[in-house]
Amino acid sequence: MKKYILFIYVILSVLALPACTKNTLYFTPEVTGYIYDSKTHKPLSNQSGDMGFNGRTDSDNAKVNLKSDGNFTIPAVTATYYFIKPDVKQYTNFPPEIF
After folding, report:
1. Is 52 exposed, middle or buried (0-12, 13-18, 19+ CB in 10 A)?
2. Is there a contact between 51 and 35 (Cβ–Cβ < 8 Å)?
C-alpha cells in the first residue's frame, strides 16, 4: 500500500512541475541599430529619446540611450507567466511599426 501512495505522490509531483516553470511570450523581437547624422554621416552619440513598437511598448521601456558609436537597442515586448497564459488580444491588432 505504501508503494502505491508513493507512486501516486511521485506522479502528482511530476505533473505539477510545469506550473513552477516560468514561460515567456515574445510579441516583438529585440531591435538593435545605429543612428547617423544625414549630413555628416557620423554616428549620433550620447543622445536619448523614445523608441519602441507602436502601441506595444510601454512608456517605461520606450527610453533609448545612444552609445558613443550611435548604437541603440529596443527591448522586446514580452509577457511572462507560470501556468495560465495571459490575454494576448491587446497585442494582436497593432501594426508592427517602430516609433
Report:
1. buried
2. no
Contact 46, 94 (CB under 8 A): no
**pTM exceeding 0.70:** no
Q: What is the pLDDT of residues 15-29, one digit of tens each?
A: 777 767 888 888 888
Which three cell numbers mark 55?
502601441
Task: Sort strands 48-50 and 63-65 into parallel, antiparallel or unpaired.
Answer: antiparallel
Please work out, in degrees rounded to the nearest 5, the angle formed at the alpha carbon of residue 26 by the alpha carbons of 67 and 83.
Answer: 135
> Helix-strand-coil percent breakdown of the chain, rounded to 5?
20, 25, 50
Q: pLDDT tens, 44-81?
A: 888 888 787 776 776 776 788 888 888 888 888 888 88
Secondary structure letter of residue 83 according to DSSP: S
